[in-house]
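Sample entry (130 residues):
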Amino acid sequence: MHGLVEQFLKLRPPKFAGMGDPEEAESWIDELHKAFELLRCSEKEKVTLATYQLQGNANHWWKVKEFLQLQQTNLTVDQYEVKFAQLSRYAPRLIENPVDRAKRFRDGLKLNIRSQLVALNLKDYNELYE
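Predicted structure, serialized as tokens:
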């Protein structure tokens, strides 16, 4: 991946801050697509490289979206909790209520874990995590 990032940056792709008109966003996407085609990037590589070019509001928006879509999947509960804590900084309003914080954490857990916790009806984040 390191070599791909170097090649990508040599192309001097544009940054995107999420300000301005929609045409600016379309232009940014078009320029990135050119670089992706030249470098023959996979879908995963495209996401990684594109997010590297986000700045300001656009970067903040991306991290909020990442928080909203966070799922435990193949992470341990401890790894999931670390990622949850890191990303939750970008969406403080979504978790300012302790009950909402606990519910959002629970809803991202694997189904087999989540189904056991729903029955306990835990509303405290720390109790839920433990």
